[in-house]
Amino acid sequence: MTVVVAALLGSAYALGRSLVPDQVPPRHSAGATTSADGPHYADQPSGGEPTGGAPTGGAPTGTPSAGTGPAETGQDGSGQTTGTDNLFGAHATSGSPRLALTFDDGPDPRYTPQVLALLREYDVHATFCVVGENAQNHPDLIQAIVNEGHTLCNHSWHHDVGLGARSADAIRADLLRTNEAIRAAVPNAPIVWYRQPGGAWTYPVVSVARQLGMTPLHWSVDPSDWELPGAAKITATVLTQAEPGSVVLLHDAGGNRQGTVDALRRILPDLTARFELEALPTDPT
């Protein structure tokens, strides 16, 4: 009898477990994760515009007040901007009829050399918004970017989407540390642009960047290549949305960027036939 009861209880337990859904593993928080491909950045925006509220993964709250005036319009409680008219002065176009290609999150030893080779093939210069830790780890690639006539842009030390919600001193230390890593590789290269990860602009991060002699840089065309939509979709988005003065957001690091490289191979012949392409100037006004 005891054996029978135990068997019945065991069967009931097994049946109950089968009705409970499998536990979903926790999602990675925003920021960098490591893998065989190097750092992965999982906190880009879903579109080409800053979004209201905290960035994906949750940015720190308590952003210092931007004060009063037009720049604060459209700001929500987290300090994030909520539309393209409220970038706190960040540039979203090239400022000329020329189109600017920009590449974020690198350098990466797998994808950055492929991007450089394609740009060289079509005699195109671009702007590379580099992450400080990657610049420190791959100084040879920073040197290659500069030697081939491209412009450098500071993209924070660790791709910190919440950086703009931190104190001015913390922001300044982050941007200076990134500049130091870049200049350790290329001592005399100008660094006159700053791009906030995730496009999460706040008044403090724009203010500090300008105090350090860098112009905040946003974008106007975003194919969301960080979401790995495939080369065909990346290509279609860029080619249909590009116009004179566009700043195109692409990525040469932060994950698997082969789709972006493959798309670039299709994009460049079309763009060079329709537009003049430029690296953003090293003396922005």
Widest β-sheet, arrangement of strands: 7-6-5-4-3-8
Can you summarize the main beta sheet? 6 strands, parallel
Compute the CA-based radius of gyration: 22 Å
Low-confidence stretches: 1-36, 45-84
Element pattern in H and E: HEEEHEHHEHEHEHEH
The total count of strands amounts to 8
Global structural class: alpha/beta
The average pLDDT value, as a whole number, equals 79
| Number of distinct helices | 8
Percent helix: 25-40%
Strand percentage:
5-15%
Q: Outline, from the CA principal axes?
A: globular
- The N- to C-terminal Cα distance equals 89 Å
Detail the topology: elements first, then pairings.
Elements: H1 2-18, E1 32-33, E2 40-41, E3 100-104, H2 112-121, E4 127-130, H3 132-137, H4 139-147, E5 151-154, H5 168-185, E6 191-194, H6 203-211, E7 215-216, H7 231-241, E8 247-251, H8 258-274
Helix pairs in contact: 2-8, 4-5, 5-6, 7-8
Comma- or semicolon-separated keywords:
alpha/beta; 8 strands; 285 residues
Q: Can you tell me about this structure?
A:
The protein is an alpha/beta fold and 285 residues long. Helix content is 34%, strand content 10%. A 6-stranded parallel sheet has the order 7-6-5-4-3-8. Helix 2 links the parallel strand 3 (100-104) and strand 4. Helix 2 (112-121) runs parallel beside helix 8 and helix 5 (168-185) packs across helix 6. The longest helix has 18 residues, at 168-185. The model is unreliable at 1-36 and 45-84 (pLDDT under 50).
